[in-house]
Amino acid sequence: MIKVCPGCASTWAGGSHCEDCGTLLRDPYAKDAAETLPKGIWKYIRLQYGARRGMLVRVMAFLMVPVVFGLLAREAVLLAAPWNAIGIAGAALAGFLTWALLYWMAGKAVRIWVLRKGQLNKRRMAKALLKRAIGTK
After folding, report:
1. Are strands 3-4 and 11-12 parallel, antiparallel or unpaired?
2. 26 and 37 in contact (C-beta within 8 Å)?
3. Buried b (16+ CB within 10 A) or exposed e, 109-130
């Protein structure tokens, strides 16, 4: 359960007192939270949860490399002599590309859905991305 310090706006995973300033921690989901907590705290909490999601996807990207390589290399070993080496190299390349794609997508998702949430109009962003993809000005 996340708790927030009304004095210094630090967030904590639990406890009763802030370790930074000693103030009594408050539950952000309490009925009186809007009056007792700083105004921008929900933006900060959303940022923290979004960053954690991005971190988990990046860890998943690292764990996918041996899975992709293992599955493809297992099939490549059964090929004839010159093709098995090419297949194993292709499996290594596919594992690396899987990691790179998931890692990049996690960073992009955090930037779009967490950092910019509430700052951009989704329709304007969609139009800008469409214009960029088409190449018009």
Report:
1. antiparallel
2. yes
3. ebeeebeeeeeeeeeeeeeeee
Q: pTM of the full predicted structure?
A: 0.60
For residue 8, give the 3-state DSSP assignment: coil
Please answer whether residues 60 and 45 qualify as being in contact, where contact means their C-beta atoms are separated by less than 8 angstroms: no
Q: What is the pLDDT of residues 68-125, one digit of tens each?
A: 999 999 999 999 989 999 999 999 999 999 999 999 998 888 777 776 655 556 677 6
Q: Would you list the DSSP string of 36-101?
A: HS-TTHHHHHHHHHHHHHHHHHHHHHHHHHHHHHHHHHHHHTTS-HHHHHHHHHHHHHHHHHHHHH
Cα(37)–Cα(58) distance, rounded to whole angstroms?
A: 32
